[in-house]
Specification:
Largest sheet: 8 strands, parallel
Number of strands: 15
CATH class of the largest domain: Alpha Beta
Strand content: 15-25%
CATH topology of the largest domain: TIM Barrel
CATH architecture of the largest domain: Alpha-Beta Barrel
Shape: globular
Number of domains: 2
Radius of gyration: 24 Å
Distance between the termini: 83 Å
Number of helices: 9
Length: 465
């Protein structure tokens, strides 16, 4: 027993020594130099059309008819990306590499190929670095979570978690960073122990978590985040606002090319019917420039289709971003909203603090107005102060498109008159209407399938002719 304890201590000391030998500040500069990368999510949810796919027992549910990792890596290079962040295992426990720990893996599915091994070869061929996404827990592990919501203490299987990580960190070459998904718990291995385990195998690998204890994490993850300073936790998105920053050396943010929407998964393959919702090259390039400005890295998620290929519309968008990067394309400065910081009110408010009407006029997409819990319609109004000439607007709706009918209106005397009417809100797209001089303007959600909630309602001067 004493010998075993001594060996454990010596291994731990050796791991600490190896980790101390790596200049992580220098490594942080190297990783920042990659600037942005492609996040690949391809698993059971590709075929279910849902973000989470619990309850699947048969690996043949993964019906992929092919796998073109060379296309993934080539497109990343054409887009000016420096790395690919690959989903190795989601909460369903389906492994996208040839693990020796379980038959719940891609090599036992009809595809029968080690996708991670193929991706590694493709990345080497095209000069692309590799990073890994890894779900810490699984729905089928002891202490099962229900598969419906975030749970801090989900399924536990510490031996399996460590065995998986050992394979990933010893068989597939250098890994830039591991994106640990803590949505259903830590798998029975604390984050402190997880960090030590990773560093013992690859001392230069950055470690980050999207929920939970952040002590010791050296990369701050930003699920549904945006560019911003390392100390700005709001930039990291809704899960990391209170995360400590003492151990962070750099920040990552990620979002899917297809924003949240109803009727499909956003992180995985999206059907052609959602093409009009996808982010534009200009919008993505603007966030790329923000990442460069703040020293972030930016991981854009695109989901391969049933044949294991990126959609052509996504490839075209990424190539266009790559062209803009190479040519150092200049983007016009976004106009300042005339409604920013002005007095606001609403028809109703979500019962918890922090969802008041003024949150839709603060210029921050991390905050939002929410109507009452049972509302399926409602309005937010802004007082511009002196009567002001307006001719354009932009609306950013929270989560999936829930609005089915809306109007932008202004108060003329004692009567509200329409400036624009629409059905579904297309977030981040400029709406034009005949110029008018107005003091009070409102967004009137006339019909919605869920509680109306708006991140931003911005107003601008008319477009110059």
């Amino acid at each position: 027993m004493k010998n075993a304890m001594l060996i454990s201590v010596l291994v731990a000391v050796s791991a600490c020594s190896r980790a101390a030998d790596v200049d992580m500040s220098g490594r942080a500069q190297e990783l920042k130099g990659l600037r942005w990368g492609m996040f690949i999510c391809w698993s059971f949810s590709t075929f279910s059309g849902k973000e989470w796919t619990p309850g699947v027992k048969d690996v043949s549910f993964f019906k992929a008819t092919g796998c073109d990792t060379d296309q993934w890596a080539r497109t990343a290079r054409e887009a000016g990306m420096g790395y690919i962040l690959f989903l190795t295992k989601h909460h369903d426990g389906f492994c996208l590499w040839d693990t020796k720990t379980t038959d719940r893996k891609v090599t036992k599915a009809p595809l029968g190929r080690d996708v991670l091994a193929e991706l590694k070869k493709s990345c080497d061929k095209h000069g692309i670095k590799l990073a890994l996404y890894f779900s810490e827990g699984e729905w089928d592990w002891p202490n099962k979570p229900d598969g419906k919501r975030y749970q801090a203490n989900g399924g536990h299987n510490p031996g399996m978690k460590k065995a998986h990580l050992k394979e990933l960190l010893t068989q597939y070459g250098p890994i830039e960073y591991i994106w640990f998904d803590h949505a259903i718990g830590d798998g029975g291995v604390s984050h402190k122990e997880t960090i030590a385990f990773v560093k013992a195998l690859q001392p230069g690998c950055f470690v980050g978590f999207n929920h939970g204890d952040q002590a010791g994490a050296d990369i701050r993850l930003g699920e549904m985040g945006r560019p911003g300073p390392l100390a700005d936790h709001k930039a990291a998105g809704p899960h990391m606002r209170d995360a400590p920053s003492s151990s962070y050396l750099l920040a990552e943010f990620t979002y899917p090319i297809l924003p949240p929407h109803k009727g499909g998964a956003m992180w995985f393959y999206s059907l052609p019917q959602h093409d009009n919702l996808c982010k534009s090259a200009e919008s993505i390039y603007r966030d790329y420039l923000g990442a460069v400005q703040y020293g972030n890295i930016f991981s854009l998620d695109v989901g391969p289709d049933y044949a294991g290929k990126l959609r052509e519309i996504d490839v075209r968008t990424l190539r266009e971003v790559g062209r803009m990067i190479r040519e150092k394309a200049a983007l016009p400065e976004p106009p300042r909203s005339l409604a920013a910081g002005k007095a606001a009110k609403s028809s109703s408010t979500w019962p918890q603090p922090g969802y008041e009407a003024d949150k839709a006029f603060d210029g921050n997409e991390s905050t939002r107005w929410g109507a009452a819990a049972d509302a399926r319609s409602g309005w937010i109004e802004v007082d511009l102060g002196p009567p002001t000439r307006i001719g354009r607007a932009m609306i950013v709706e929270r989560s999936f498109p829930r609005t089915r009918e809306y109007a932008i209106e202004y108060l003329d005397g004692e009567q509200w008159k329409p400036l624009h009417r629409g059905t579904r809100i297309e977030s981040d797209k400029i709406i034009t209407f005949p110029p008018v001089t107005a003091q009070r303007v409102r967004l009137n959600v006339l019909k919605a399938v869920e509680v109306p909630t708006i991140e931003e309602f911005q107003l601008f001067v008319p477009q110059e002719k």
